Amino acid sequence: MNQDWPVTELDPVRRMRVLAAATPGVAYAEKLIPAPFSAVWETASDLEHELPRMVTDLRSFEITSVRGERMTGHARGRLGQRARFDVVLRPGWCVMQSRFLIGGMAAVPEGEGTRFAFLGGLRLPGIRLLDPVLRPAIRPLARRPISRLEHRLQAR
Amino acid sequence: MAPMTAPPEIDPALVRAAQRGDRMAVADLLDALAPYVGRVCGPIALQDGPDAAQEALIVIFRNLGGLREPGAIYGWARAIAVREAVRVARRTARAIPAELADVPAPGDPQLAADIRDVLARLTPEHRAVLVLRDLEGLDEQAAGALLAVPAATVRSRLSRARRSFRKAWSG
Question: Which ipTM score applies to this complex?
Answer without folding.
Answer: 0.90
